[in-house]
Amino acid sequence: MRGFSCRMNIAAVLNGLLVSVLAAVLWKYAKLREHAYSVEEELLLTQQSQELSQVRIDYHAALQSLQEEGTRMVCTGKMHTDRVCRFDYLCYSNEAEEFVFFHSNSSVMLPNLGSRRFQPALLDLSSVEDHNTQYFNFLELPAAALKFMPKPVFVPDVTLILNRFNPDNLMHIFHDDLLPIYYTMLQYPDLDQDARLVFMEGWNEGLHFDLYRLMSNKQPLLKEQLKNFGKLLCFTKSYVGLSKMTTWYQYGFVQPQGAKANILVSSMEIRQFTRFLMEKLNVSMEESSSGDEYIVVFSRTINRLILNEAELILALTQEFQMKTVTVSLDDHSFADIVQIISRASMLVSMHGAQLVTSVFLPRGALVVEIFPYAVNPDHYTPYKTLASLPGIDLQYVAWQNTNEENTMAFPDRPWDQGGIAHLEKAEQEHIMKSKEVPQHLCCRNPEWLFRIYQDTKVDIPSLIDAIRQTVKTKPNLKKAKPGIIVHPGKVRDPKCQASVQGTNEARLTVSWQIPWNLKYLKVREVKYEVWIQEQGENTYMPYILPHQNYTFSENIKPFTTYLVWIRCFFNKTLLGPFADVLVCRT
């Protein structure tokens, strides 16, 4: 019995050992499979990241950094309307269609606005100021939540995240998108030509997507395309928002449209941008010779037509003894249009987005903008404002059709092409009888749409007369390089000296030295502005003086304290800063 029992125990032990070994092998196999799956998933996610970019990324290091350090944000600008933010590891959930800020003990959020971040937003994604469809914000989660979420795909490129405002309209493309993108990228050195643009507004590519491609060596990404790369995308380094410093026009969302109240851009910035774009388009920047002057008529082919365009072209040729050519978006590539306009002496066009191409005109050229019947040129001035920017050196003429017989309206078209058939009869009759579209807000005013989509037969003698009031012979292109706009510095060593001549008479002598930078400049006209204010009074006496020493006696009282400010200005408009106030007692 004992021998049998012993044999049974040995068998049980061997069986147990076999089970243990098998369990260990299976456990090891399971762990190897789990590791293989993890490696396979990491390789796939790394591959997806590299599909977004040629930049190689250490996926494990990026994930560890996100988990341990979270998202970091530092913004410039005090208000949401002038703020651009830089992020490390800002993520986007395609499932929620929301950006996500992951918090850890190492996260940074400057400014830390708390709930003020929602009043109304952290920043504007577009350069169109304070438009409620362009606001940016993010959701917040602890970094620990990453354990329960889809594994992130990392975007290794430096990205600029923004909204395009209207990518089917050239004016919006240039004014709201391309110029702000260009100067936002110049502000931040790592937003170079290898940065990637990410458009989050939800539009498709639009009619002129090739223009956006010029801004970077990388293919821009649309919001819809982000879904192809995973449920959770994390941008390793990104900038969000656009600079608004180059915009000059507001579209009437709060008040009727017009020039911005505080325009900060000049010809210098516009011309630098157009040179960049022409280089990207492989457009020659050589100036035309003096015998090659010509006029360009920008032809529209679908709506807002010039009904007697052929007659107009012939009349311009005869009147100005210059060749006249036509361009259109349908018949020419954009590069060809830029090439032609960049050497033109005059650009003639109906009011419309195509007139933004006047940024490519040479200095001294003339812009002629034609307005349909009942559309007051003074109420719609994006291109007049452009032609008036400091140093741009463009001439501008607006002409309006004032003869109702020379207009062709289309009341039966769809509403967004000027149709009014959907309106009540009384409103239709009111619009048809109106002689001028009243000022209005953007964007669906039916009277404005009805009138702006009219075709026009141009009164050619009237148009020629309007041009002649600005140009007596031919537009005079300026071959010389544009002057640099330089402001004077502070006047130096300001002094005052008082003398009392009697109980009711005193004199105040004020002197100063020229600004330091003036001795290095050639300036046509230098003058000085002096303000004198009796201490305790609210008013002051201003004086414009040609020299640096002057004695004042009029309205100067004995035994009185005066405050004196002095500044220099060049060529009537280039003002310098005031020097420190002088306190002078007679």
TrEMBL record:
Q: Which domain of life is it from?
A: Eukaryota
Transmembrane segment boundaries: none
GO MF, one term, reads:
protein O-acetylglucosaminyltransferase activity
Main subcellular location of this protein, as a coarse class: endoplasmic reticulum
Q: Which UniProt keywords apply?
A: Endoplasmic reticulum, Glycoprotein, Glycosyltransferase, Membrane, Signal-anchor, Transferase, Transmembrane, Transmembrane helix
Location in the cell: Endoplasmic reticulum membrane
Q: Boundaries of each Fibronectin type-III domain copy?
A: 490-586
Q: Does the keyword Hydrolase apply?
A: no
- The catalytic activity of this protein is classed by the Enzyme Commission as 2.4.1.312
GO CC terms: endoplasmic reticulum membrane
Which SUPFAM superfamilies does this UniProt record tie to the protein?
Fibronectin type III
Q: Which reaction does it catalyse?
A: 3-O-(alpha-D-mannosyl)-L-threonyl-[protein] + UDP-N-acetyl-alpha-D-glucosamine = 3-O-(N-acetyl-beta-D-glucosaminyl-(1->4)-alpha-D-mannosyl)-L-threonyl-[protein] + UDP + H(+)
Pathway membership? Protein modification; protein glycosylation
> What's its membrane topology?
Single-pass type II membrane protein
For this entry, list what GO says about its biological process. protein O-linked glycosylation via mannose
Q: Cite the Pfam families for this sequence.
A: Glyco_transf_61 (PF04577)
Q: Which Gene3D superfamilies match?
A: Immunoglobulins (2.60.40.10)
User: How would you classify this enzyme at the top EC level?
Assistant: transferase
Tell me, what does this protein do in biology? O-linked mannose beta-1,4-N-acetylglucosaminyltransferase that transfers UDP-N-acetyl-D-glucosamine to the 4-position of the mannose to generate N-acetyl-D-glucosamine-beta-1,4-O-D-mannosylprotein. Involved in the biosynthesis of the phosphorylated O-mannosyl trisaccharide (N-acetylgalactosamine-beta-3-N-acetylglucosamine-beta-4-(phosphate-6-)mannose), a carbohydrate structure present in alpha-dystroglycan (DAG1), which is required for binding laminin G-like domain-containing extracellular proteins with high affinity.
Into which family does the record put it? Answer: Belongs to the glycosyltransferase 61 family.
Mind telling me what this protein is named? Protein O-linked-mannose beta-1,4-N-acetylglucosaminyltransferase 2
